[in-house]
Amino acid sequence: MLLARLIKIAFCSAGLSLQVLGATLQPQIPSIATFTPADSAPFVFTPAVQILVDPRYTHEGSPSLLQFAQTFREDLVGIAGFVIPAVRSASNSGSERSVIFLTLNTTTNHTLYNGKPTGEGYDFTISQNEIVIAGAAPIGVWWGTRTLLQQLVASHTSAEIPAGTGSDGPGWEVRGFMLDAGRHWFDTAFLSDLCTYASFWKINEFHIHASDNLWIPQILYGTGWRTLYSGFRFQPPTNSPVYGLVPYRNESWSYSEFTAMQEICTAHGVTLIPEIDTPGHSLVISQWKPQLMLNGTPDSLNLTYPETIPTIKSIWSQFLPWFTSAEVSIGADEYEASLADAYISFVNEMSDFIQEESGKSIRIWGTYEPSNTSSVSTNITIQHWDFPAGDIPLQLLNGGYDVINSEQAFLYLDGKIPAEGGFPQELNETLLWSGAPGGQGWAPNIFTPTDPSNNTSADDPHLRGSIFALWNDWGPNATTPLETYYQLARSLAMFGEKTWAGSGVRDTELTQTQFDAAYPMLNAKAPGQNLNRAEEPEYGDIVYSYAQIPWFPFDTHIESVGPPYTLSFKVRPGSLANSSNIASARLFQGKDSALYASSLTFSSNAEYYPLPPTFALPADSYTSVVVHATREYTYANISMEGNGEETETYWYTTTMNIWGDYLATGNMSFAAPAKVIGCEGFTGDIRDIVLSVG
Questions:
Q1: Phi, psi at residue 297, to the nearest 5°?
Q2: pLDDT value at position 582?
Q3: Does residue 452 sit in the same domain as residue 586?
Q4: 3-state secondary structure 408-428
Q5: What pTM value is reported for the model?
Q6: Greatest CA span in the chain, whole angstroms?
Q7: 48 close to 189: Cβ distance less than 8 angstroms
């Protein structure tokens, strides 16, 4: 790694380096509440650094302080590029040099903006020989280690952290993101990496919307509703009474897969909040048990039918033991308003049931249901999303409801091309930095960009925080998982700043200019995952180059390379007499994608994206192919032997059904399928292969 090499160079020339006394910390994401520089030498990272855990608190918490320390060590090794000693449980006697001491201080008074105590706060002291991070709870220490890692990255070549003392903590309890996994399948390896990445920005919740369906009215409300794509991602065992609920078992998470993912999220300070959405958005249940659906509305369940609520309870009974979070979401949005009383009764009954069954509380999406006789219990957290049609947040807050802000005007995203007037692909940075009333930046207490009388204060006692949402309305073919990461990457960092520090509360908050300067460097070094699919070139910008391939399949040992990249090669297929062979033959295969000989088709996430069907590789002659990819598109420049210098350009696209109103074409971005060259029955020759980045 380049950073590791630069750090090592700095160590070798330490005697010549100039140590700046009284320096301040570098800007980081999210910003730190307070730091007072000390007029002394900085702490320098070397391979001798020792992480010590206070033996009084080694096994405190879940994850424990020791477990957080061990994950921190892995991250530190990954960023620094050298091995350090194993974590030890030992008191900090002061006899050792280069010590990072992790401890708890339960007497500190770390509070959220609303005055409620939080275990996520931490204090730290940095001197020449040691760094002490003292958290209000183990999770506070964990966030302190994220600060330390970011400062190491920001130190560039010096590997020095300025001496001083600081204190930090979040403004709000809930700082999360939601991913629509009901309309788009994601495997747990990818979702685990998202948790790890989000943790670097002190995001502490990952809300997984795990059941839903496409909304194409002509199909949904016509005779073909049984065929419309729907998803339910938790996979029950074969002997379960709800076994038939899952339409695609290959697109569902087994108990072991989900548990492993949940453990990774928890180990990185991120709580996974599962959502099973009923009684609306429930086509997957109607397709399983048609008798439960509301007449004429297959995506809504009939709550007055005797079997409906017991069936929903049986689903939750199957999966509640999987979930370690203290809360779950039952969705409960966009239901028929004329059935308000039945809806409210259902929500309250499910709240009582889940509490009795598991001790967990519930959240619902904010949905105004007109009723003069009943109301949703104030024990239920309302996740606001639509002002003012869905609900009016100030009325909820003043009525004693705890509220999470997911206001769509600021916080809704959609995969790929949005409909006219639809949602963007990334958070609107201009809006979040300065689009709130009075030109102020957005924060969880802001529900509308135009009318300050409908917003609340940062210290509102019932405002829990905020979650932004990425929906997949256009279905499983609209994006690849890595395209989803590209949408989330920068937004998660910015959201971390806005939900940790806020806007106009602390004088240490980042400016947009500071964020823009800090983000690229920090994103490139975010530890514990490689969602950027970054690969350091062997020389220049070239990842690998082969004039000839000695045998097929040929393993390059490079799993995948993210865009921007260029992959050039010449290919001469063997005989095409057996069309089935050419259909399955893969020129290149990687962790995230494959490139087929047939029509140079790309595949990702079990979806296939061919070039125009008029194109086919000619047999027994060479075709020159140059694939260019960025995070926004992929295209191929193709020239065939005997065509002189004539080159044709083909774009990889997908066709999306936008709510049944019209079809839209969207560009596709693919990671380079870099690992195996010539596989799955390919015969012929692939030569002059060059994969370069940038």
A1: -135, 80
A2: 64
A3: no
A4: HHHHEEECCCCCCCCCCCCCC
A5: 0.95
A6: 80
A7: no
